[in-house]
C-alpha cells in the first residue's frame, strides 16, 4: 500500500480542533524554513551516510585508539547520527553568519618569532587551541558567536527531522515526517501513517561546534611607546574573513577541514561535503567527535587529565561556571522538565481526545542526559499515568481504584535520543529501529533518497 502523503483520518473527536491545527501548520517537505539551508544540509547528511557505509570495514575502526573505543558495531550508527547532527549544526552556524568582528588572535605558533599567527571565530569564550594543552584562560567576553535562540531552534529541529526521516523511511513500520512551521506551537514535528500519529517535542543541541580558523599572513600589531609591537595573546581582533583561506578546526585532533574562501551562497556546505564524502574524511571528523563525546560523558566532578580538557570543547563546557544554556541534547535540566511537560500535554490534549486514531508522543533529541541520566530520568523513564476520569472504584475492594490498561499512558512513549533510544510504547518499536536503518542503508534501500538529497547541494 502506498504511504500516505496527507494527514490520517481522525474523525469528529474531542481533539479535532487541535489535530486540525496540526494538519494546517504541517510542512511536509522539510525544506520550508528561512533560517537554515535545509537542502544543503540534506545533501551534506546524504554524503556522510554514504561515506559511513563505504568505510564501515575500514581498519581505522580497530587501529585508532579513539574509534576502537566504539567497540560494538551495532551501536555505531547511533553515534554516527549524533555526530552528523553536530556537523549539520556546525555548517549552519557559519553559513551566512560569519562576521569580521571579534576573532581570537593566537600567536602561540610564533614561539621563537617564527611562523604565522592564527585567528579563531569561536562559539566558546576561549582559545580552542590553547585550552587543549595550556588549560582555560580568562573567559573572553565577546568571543562567543552563537546564533540567536530562535535560529538555533530552527537549525536543530530541521537537522533532527532530516535524520528522523531517514530512520523512519527504513523502519518496519514507516512514517512520513513533517515539521510544524510555527515555533511557538506545542508540537515541533509530526510522524504519521494511515493508522498512527506521532507528535515530537524536539530538545536538541549540538555537543561540539568547532571554530573557524584562519592563518594570518603576518602578525597583527599595535602602537606602543617603543613603536609597533605584536598584539597580545588572545586579544579580540577584526579579520577580513572573505579574503582568508578558512578551515573548520578540529581542535582536539589539531586538524583542519579545509573550507577555502567564502564562495557561493551555499558555502561551507559543498566544501564540507567534499571532505566528508571520503570515508577517511568522515572517520577523521567522527574520531574527533567521539573523543569529545566519551570525555563529556563522564560526570564533570570525575573527569581527570584528558577527560577534563575535552570538556573545554563541548557546549556546556567544563569551567567553574558552566554554560548551561548550551549543554548538548537533554543536558539542561530545564529541557528535561519542559520536554516532560510537553509529553504530558500530548497525552492529555491529543491522545486522550482521539479515540479513533492512536496518538503517541516522543521526546526527540540528539543525545540523552549522558552523565545526568541516572539522577534525572532513570526512575521516570517507564513511569505511567492516567487522567482521573479513567479511574473507577473496585466494587469488591473499596480501598482500591482501577484503570483499564488502554487508558494507562507512558510518561515517555519514547525518548528518541540518537545515542540511546528508549521505546516504551509497543506501537513505536517498529517505527524507530536503528538496526533496520543501518541494514536498509547498507542494502541500498535509501539510495534513491540519498542521491536525490545530494543533488540539492551544489
Overall mean pLDDT stands at 92
Largest sheet: 7 strands, mixed
Strand tally is: 19
Uncertain runs are none
Structural category: alpha+beta
Q: What is the percent of helical residues?
A: 25-40%
Walk across the major sheet and give the strand order: 1-4-5-6-13-18-19
Number of domains: 2
Query: What is the 3D shape?
Result: elongated
Count of helical stretches: 13
- Strand content bin: 15-25%
Radius of gyration: 24 Å
Amino-to-carboxy terminus distance = 35 Å
In short:
The chain is α+β, with helices and mostly antiparallel strands and 458 residues long. Strand 5 and strand 6 form a beta hairpin.
Question: How does this model look, in words?
Answer:
With 458 residues, this protein is an alpha+beta fold. The protein folds into two domains: 181 residues, no CATH class; 224 residues, no CATH class. The protein is 33% helix and 16% strand. It contains 13 helices and 19 strands. Strands 1-4-5-6-13-18-19 form a seven-stranded mixed sheet, sandwiched between helices. A six-stranded antiparallel sheet has the order 10-2-3-7-11-12. It has a two-stranded antiparallel sheet with strand order 8-9. A hairpin with a 2-residue loop joins strand 15 and strand 16. The longest helix is centred in the first third of the chain and has 22 residues. It is elongated, with a radius of gyration of 24 Å. The two termini are 35 Å apart. The model has no long low-confidence stretch (mean pLDDT 92).
Defining key terms:
458 residues; alpha+beta; 2 domains; six-stranded antiparallel β-sheet; 19 strands; 33% helix; elongated
Amino acid at each position: 500500500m502506498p504511504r500516505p502523503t496527507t494527514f490520517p483520518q481522525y474523525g469528529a473527536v474531542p481533539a479535532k480542533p487541535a489535530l486540525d491545527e496540526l494538519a494546517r501548520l504541517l510542512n511536509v517537505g522539510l525544506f520550508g524554513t528561512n533560517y537554515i539551508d535545509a537542502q544543503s544540509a540534506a545533501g551534506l547528511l546524504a554524503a556522510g551516510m554514504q561515506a559511513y557505509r563505504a568505510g564501515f570495514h575500514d581498519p581505522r575502526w580497530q587501529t585508532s585508539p579513539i574509534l576502537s573505543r566504539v567497540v560494538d558495531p551495532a551501536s555505531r550508527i547511533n553515534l554516527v547520527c549524533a555526530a552528523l547532527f553536530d556537523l549539520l549544526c556546525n555548517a549552519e552556524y557559519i553559513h551566512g553568519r560569519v562576521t569580521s568582528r571579534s576573532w581570537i588572535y593566537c600567536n602561540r605558533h610564533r614561539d621563537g618569532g617564527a611562523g604565522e599567527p592564527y585567528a579563531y571565530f569561536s562559539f566558546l569564550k576561549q582559545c580552542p587551541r590553547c585550552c587543549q594543552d595550556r588549560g582555560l584562560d580568562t573567559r573572553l567576553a565577546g568571543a562567543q558567536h552563537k546564533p540567536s535562540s530562535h535560529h538555533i531552534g530552527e537549525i536543530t529541529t530541521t537537522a533532527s527531522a532530516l535524520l528522523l526521516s531517514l530512520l523512519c523511511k527504513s523502519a518496519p513500520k514507516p512514517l512520513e515526517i513533517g515539521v510544524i512551521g510555527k515555533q511557538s506551537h506545542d508540537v515541533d514535528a509530526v510522524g504519521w501513517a494511515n493508522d498512527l500519529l506521532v507528535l515530537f517535542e524536539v530538545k536538541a543541541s549540538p555537543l561540539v561546534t568547532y571554530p573557524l580558523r584562519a592563518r594570518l599572513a603576518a602578525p597583527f600589531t599595535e602602537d606602543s611607546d617603543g613603536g609597533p609591537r605584536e598584539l597580545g595573546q588572545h586579544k579580540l581582533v577584526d579579520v577580513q574573513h572573505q579574503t582568508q583561506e578558512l578551515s573548520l578546526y578540529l581542535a582536539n585532533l589539531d586538524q583542519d577541514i579545509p573550507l577555502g574562501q567564502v564562495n557561493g551562497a551555499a558555502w561551507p556546505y559543498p566544501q564540507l561535503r567534499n571532505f566528508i564524502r571520503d570515508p577517511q574524511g568522515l572517520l577523521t571528523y567522527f574520531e574527533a567527535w567521539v573523543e569529545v563525546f566519551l570525555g563529556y560523558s563522564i560526570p564533570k566532578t570525575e573527569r581527570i587529565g584528558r577527560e577534563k580538557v575535552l570538556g573545554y570543547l563541548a557546549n556546556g563546557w567544563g569551567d567553574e561556571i558552566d554554560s548551561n544554556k548550551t549543554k548538548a541534547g537533554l543536558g539542561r535540566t530545564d529541557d528535561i522538565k519542559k520536554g516532560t511537560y510537553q509529553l504530558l500535554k500530548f497525552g492529555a490534549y491529543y491522545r486522550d481526545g482521539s479515540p479513533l486514531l492512536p496518538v503517541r508522543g516522543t521526546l526527540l533529541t540528539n543525545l540523552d542526559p549522558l552523565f545526568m541520566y541516572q539522577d534525572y530520568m532513570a526512575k521516570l523513564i517507564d513511569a505511567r499515568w492516567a487522567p482521573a476520569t479513567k479511574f473507577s472504584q473496585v466494587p469488591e475492594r473499596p480501598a482500591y481504584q482501577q484503570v483499564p490498561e488502554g487508558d494507562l499512558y507512558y510518561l515517555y512513549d519514547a525518548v528518541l535520543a540518537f545515542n540511546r533510544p528508549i521505546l516504551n510504547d509497543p506501537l513505536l518499536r517498529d517505527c524507530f529501529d536503528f538496526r533496520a536503518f543501518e541494514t536498509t542503508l547498507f542494502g541500498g534501500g535509501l539510495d534513491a533518497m540519498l542521491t536525490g538529497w545530494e543533488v540539492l547541494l551544489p
